[in-house]
Amino acid sequence: MALSGMRGLSVFISDIRNCQNKELERLRVDKELGNIRTRFKNEKGLAPYEKKKYVWKMLYIFMLGYDVDFGHMEAVSLISAPKYPEKQVGYIVTACLINENHDFLRLAINTVRNDIIGRNETFQCLALTLVGNIGGRDFSESLAPDVQKLLISSSARPLVRKKAALCLLRLYRKNPDVVNVDGWSDRMAQLLDERDLGVLTSSMSLFVSLVSNNHEAYWSCIPKCVRVLERLVRNQDIPQEYTYYGIPSPWLQVCELLPSYIFLLIVVGHHICPMVTQ
């Protein structure tokens, strides 16, 4: 949490830390919540700095374990701010305070989509992180196609594509019926040729989930998995930062083995008891 230049926020945090007991802390929190509520209710046109400061305070109070039952609209409105400091606060606080069933979340869908399809990579990452953290049917129905396009985009940087893969995985796990991944075997085969290990690891997590739900569509990807394993284990063709205690990217190795293991169980189960695969 950035405190630079926010004296009011720094003072509030210091007051909380200096409270001698829980009762004094609660009184200080109640006082601050009353002040924030009054400012949001009575003072129209708050400066971006003031709104950002009050929203940070709300998040800090929420992290202390207190209920925050107002100010959600102010947090969501910061997502549409044109500058990064306000937009960052809006995305972070919204992701923490609002769940997938909250009514205010629908108000942010258009802004989030504009950030995802826009050209600002920083805003794209903020939007993908929010969608991935919250999930929800509304996000899945409205944003999943744009996230899919971003994942397979040749112009997007690896950091953005990595977040897009994890975001799509979250949406698919929450609402597989509204995320259209039909005919994605060719797309997944292309993603398994990815050289960037961050994108490859994230894509493999998505691949494992897809295989678990529809194994028949992805048989052709098995040779690609074997080649990736060969690249990791035999050739050790990876950057040094992906080596953990001498093991080349153990997380990716586990992800690579899971689809093969699933296919093996299906084949064995089919031969032993055909009803297993029916």
UniProtKB/TrEMBL annotation:
UniProt GO BP: intracellular protein transport; vesicle-mediated transport
Keyword vocabulary terms for this entry: Membrane, Protein transport, Transport
Entry's localization field: Endomembrane system
SUPFAM superfamilies in alphabetical order: ARM repeat
Record flagged with keyword Transport: yes
Cellular component aspect of the GO annotation: endomembrane system; membrane coat
Main localisation: membrane
Span of the signal peptide: none
InterPro entries per UniProt: Adaptor_Complx_Large_Subunit, ARM-like, ARM-type_fold, Clathrin/coatomer_adapt-like_N
Residue span, Clathrin/coatomer adaptor adaptin-like N-terminal domain: 28-254
Top-level lineage group: Eukaryota
Protein name: Membrane traffic protein
Organism name: Lithospermum erythrorhizon
Organism classification: Eukaryota, Viridiplantae, Streptophyta, Embryophyta, Tracheophyta
